[in-house]
């Protein structure tokens, strides 16, 4: 989340290489479901005192606390997925001389996927949890425009996790410009392999730049939880890693003989990546990852976590990008109906679970930092899944039905990877006529602390 959709066999790319049939990655949808559950469990563990935090005066559970605390690796997982799935069609276009993606349909589909469900949460949270705090029109417009992370103390109650949506929106807006610049740089080479290598260099620099911003945001002079920590700058490296995976997956599909050695190793040994991810997760749960508290970490611990989280997300997602298919155990783990359903409604789960946490604590009078973890998990997860399901079928899916109004796109989205021509075409840059299709994920890749 491998189904092959019909295209003529034997098609050639604009650069003369053969291309494989259109590929569908159901495991990516299942991975989103896993990440959504991790997001929810992290917040529940924090508010019930399972995770140590000064905010709630909780000592935390010494065994379970680090495990739940490290589940905020869902941040890089979601961002890597976003960079991968949204940049892959741009990467394929660059490697094969396919015309660039049209911008109007791109922005139209992104808006339809993100805004209706988000606006519903925003209005509900403002009315139910923030009515006394609304002091003017800007208090309402700011979250509706996803600008509430750029001012201190502007986060409405029940929407705290939506800081990451601001990073996503910034990525959606800037991706076409970034893809255009990368294409201008890459097409100076005529060979797909050389183009892929040229694309990887600036994206590698973005990974380092993101790490640099993470270090800056955790300098002692910045204080605890500075507003800049919520801005996109710290997370650009995770998005760039996803874009790097998109390039590697694309080159392995259109020119397998030019695939970099590391990715060829992954093709032969995909399980090694998950073993590495498990080891990195264990390291993040250990004292190596710092005190494992939901407090703002010092510079050293923050950078260790940044590197470990990047490694976990990279190693978890990388095997799911293989064009030739994933091992059976990966398909079984992530393509089962339960996880694929959770992946499909994961945007709603992400949006609503914090709202229901505050509703639970407000109506029961339970002090924050306490409470029965399992009882609250059952209540919040149940309410979130029901609401997310209703949101998907009554709001999000109908909104997606409007997508073909502005450019071709399937109504039912999925993590799809288009790469092939519809018919046999002669080699040559000017002869290629590619069929544009959506490769958007079923849910936006949103994340949480």
UniProtKB/TrEMBL annotation:
<feature type="transmembrane region" description="Helical">
    <location>
        <begin position="309"/>
        <end position="329"/>
    </location>
</feature>
<feature type="transmembrane region" description="Helical">
    <location>
        <begin position="73"/>
        <end position="96"/>
    </location>
</feature>
<dbReference type="Pfam" id="PF01757">
    <property type="entry name" value="Acyl_transf_3"/>
</dbReference>
<feature type="transmembrane region" description="Helical">
    <location>
        <begin position="267"/>
        <end position="289"/>
    </location>
</feature>
<keyword id="KW-1133">Transmembrane helix</keyword>
<keyword id="KW-0808">Transferase</keyword>
<feature type="transmembrane region" description="Helical">
    <location>
        <begin position="161"/>
        <end position="179"/>
    </location>
</feature>
<keyword id="KW-0012">Acyltransferase</keyword>
<feature type="transmembrane region" description="Helical">
    <location>
        <begin position="33"/>
        <end position="53"/>
    </location>
</feature>
<feature type="transmembrane region" description="Helical">
    <location>
        <begin position="117"/>
        <end position="141"/>
    </location>
</feature>
<protein>
    <submittedName>
        <fullName>Acyltransferase</fullName>
        <ecNumber>2.3.-.-</ecNumber>
    </submittedName>
</protein>
<feature type="transmembrane region" description="Helical">
    <location>
        <begin position="236"/>
        <end position="255"/>
    </location>
</feature>
<keyword id="KW-0472">Membrane</keyword>
<feature type="region of interest" description="Disordered">
    <location>
        <begin position="414"/>
        <end position="449"/>
    </location>
</feature>
<dbReference type="InterPro" id="IPR050879">
    <property type="entry name" value="Acyltransferase_3"/>
</dbReference>
<feature type="domain" description="Acyltransferase 3">
    <location>
        <begin position="27"/>
        <end position="388"/>
    </location>
</feature>
<feature type="transmembrane region" description="Helical">
    <location>
        <begin position="199"/>
        <end position="216"/>
    </location>
</feature>
<feature type="transmembrane region" description="Helical">
    <location>
        <begin position="373"/>
        <end position="395"/>
    </location>
</feature>
<dbReference type="GO" id="GO:0016746">
    <property type="term" value="F:acyltransferase activity"/>
</dbReference>
<feature type="transmembrane region" description="Helical">
    <location>
        <begin position="341"/>
        <end position="361"/>
    </location>
</feature>
<dbReference type="InterPro" id="IPR002656">
    <property type="entry name" value="Acyl_transf_3_dom"/>
</dbReference>
<keyword id="KW-0812">Transmembrane</keyword>
């Amino acid at each position: 989340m491998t189904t092959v959709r019909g295209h003529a066999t034997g098609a050639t790319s604009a650069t003369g290489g053969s291309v494989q049939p259109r590929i569908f990655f159901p495991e990516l949808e299942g991975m989103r479901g896993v990440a959504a559950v991790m997001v929810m469990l992290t917040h529940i563990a924090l508010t019930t005192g399972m995770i140590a935090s000064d905010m709630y005066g909780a000592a935390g559970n010494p065994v379970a606390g680090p495990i739940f605390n490290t589940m905020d690796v869902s941040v890089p997982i979601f961002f890597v997925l976003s960079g991968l799935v949204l940049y892959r069609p741009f990467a394929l276009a660059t490697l094969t001389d396919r015309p660039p993606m049209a911008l109007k349909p791109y922005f139209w589909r992104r808006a339809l996927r993100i805004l209706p469900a988000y606006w519903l949460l925003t209005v509900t949270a403002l009315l139910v949890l923030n009515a006394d705090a609304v002091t003017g029109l800007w208090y309402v417009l700011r979250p509706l425009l996803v600008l509430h992370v750029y001012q201190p103390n502007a986060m409405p109650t029940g929407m705290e996790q939506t800081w990451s949506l601001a990073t996503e929106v910034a990525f959606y807006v800037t991706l076409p410009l970034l893809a255009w610049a990368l294409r201008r740089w890459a097409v100076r080479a005529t060979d797909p392999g050389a183009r892929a290598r040229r694309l990887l260099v600036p994206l590698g620099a973005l990974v380092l730049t993101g790490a640099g911003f993470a270090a800056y945001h955790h300098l002692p002079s910045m204080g605890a939880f500075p507003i800049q920590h919520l801005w996109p700058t710290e997370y650009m490296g995770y998005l760039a890693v996803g874009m790097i995976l998109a390039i590697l997956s694309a080159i392995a599909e259109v020119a397998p003989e030019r695939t970099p050695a590391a990715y060829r190793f992954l093709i032969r040994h995909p399980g090694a990546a998950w073993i590495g991810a498990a080891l990195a997760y264990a390291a993040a749960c250990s004292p190596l990852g710092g005190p494992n508290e939901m407090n703002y970490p010092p510079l050293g611990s923050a950078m260790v976590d940044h590197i470990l989280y990047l490694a976990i997300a990279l190693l978890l997602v990388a095997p799911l990008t293989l064009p030739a298919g994933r091992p059976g155990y990966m398909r079984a783990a992530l393509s089962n109906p339960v996880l694929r359903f959770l992946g499909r409604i994961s945007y709603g789960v992400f949006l609503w679970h914090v709202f229901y946490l505050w509703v639970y604590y407000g109506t029961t009078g339970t002090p924050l930092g306490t409470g029965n973890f399992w009882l609250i998990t059952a209540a919040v997860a149940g309410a979130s899944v029901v609401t997310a399901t209703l949101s998907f079928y009554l709001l999000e899916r109908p909104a997606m039905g409007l997508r073909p109004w502005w450019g071709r796109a399937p109504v039912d989205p999925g993590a799809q990877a288009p790469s092939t021509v519809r018919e046999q075409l002669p080699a040559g840059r000017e002869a290629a006529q590619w069929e544009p299709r959506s490769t958007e994920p079923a849910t936006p890749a949103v994340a949480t602390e």
